[in-house]
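Researcher: I'd like a structural prediction for the single chain below. Treat it as a standalone chain; there are no partners to consider.
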Amino acid sequence: MSQQITVPDIGDFKDVEVIDVLVKPGDTVALETPLVTLETEKATMDVPSPTAGVVKSVAIKKGDRVSKGAVVVEIEVSAAAATPKPATPEAAAPAAAKAPEPAPAAATKPDKAAERPAPSAPRPTPVAAAKTGSHSSSHASPSVRRFARELGADLSRIKGSALKDRITHDDVKAWVKQALSSPAAAGGGTLPKVAEVDFAKFGTVEVKPLSRIQKISGPRLHASWVNVPHVWQMDEADITDLEDARAKLKTKAAKEGIKLTPLAFVMRACVKALQEYPLLNTSLDAEGKNLVFKKYIHLGFAADTPNGLVVPVVRDADKKDIYELARDLAALSEKARDGKLSAADMQGGSFTISSLGGIGGTAFTPIINAPEVAILGVSKSSMKPVYQDGKFVPRLILPFSLAYDHRVVDGAAAVRFTTFVAQRLADVKGLLEAVP
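Model: Treating it as a single chain, here is the predicted structure.
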């Protein structure tokens, strides 16, 4: 008996590129053997075999573009194999690197905030050519159009290389690369190039290729850095009572299979702050003329894995208490470490938290996970002397930093937000209250 294996549910993506075909006719495959590797602009994922058997035929090749339901291979099912089960989104595990909405990265130079925000300021672009054409007539998928907008690329100027002149992600990247290296066009200029150095002249070197995460997240981080005017607000929270309460609740939570981490409390505080200040839960529209206010709160968090940072998303965080948030964090973190996050697991975030406190550091300046307008960076807590009631007392202090898009959020709104977060973290009883 033969069975056709199709592309599973891969979220909102269509026309996903096939970057590798891992089997050929005649190959014997076991259950969960990767068959092909697909790549979206947010993630790379394998399509595994839902059954054991022998590959009868391969329906696609490297470079093809496929969508949900497209036939990948046909397998002659082994007589000893169990009843085949359809591939699921969870089974489409990201391969090797799993690049998501890029993990927040620490920038090295703080920027000075302008005195007033400029919400209607034109969106800066890293390319030299002025935008004069219309994207609407260009032959490109929605994901490619979104990718072009993030990089400031004009689709009307790009020649497509795919079937029927369809524009691909690689076409956009190549156009931007060429534009960045070309002389300044009328009304604009190019970014200065970093000097090329032959490092081998000075000693022994070893050249290694960038990881898949770096190749995919790098351009997105660069686009955010170039296009979004970043400002950072640093603050501190007294979490002495929070840690005392968490220590008392850890044993009880563990009996229920819940790992009660500080990040769950930070998430709960952020939910309350976003409800109080919904401006930080918005995004600018594609034209930069309107704000999109989201009626949901989906919190992304940076998860450290052997293959690099990924950003899973806890959905409807505003409807979950501390224990539910902790349970979701543990489940998504485990999937991230095992390389089993689906594309849907990394989509839809409205605000991101990057917590490096478990590793160390006193402060850092994260890059906004565009098109979000803010990101919270959490550093390592430490005991500090705090002056209270006429004397110094030891208190556990948590440093954190908020990076925000100055086109949308001004300094006053940012500091009100961080002050509110600090107040909520100091009020552990409020964080432990049941969600209505």
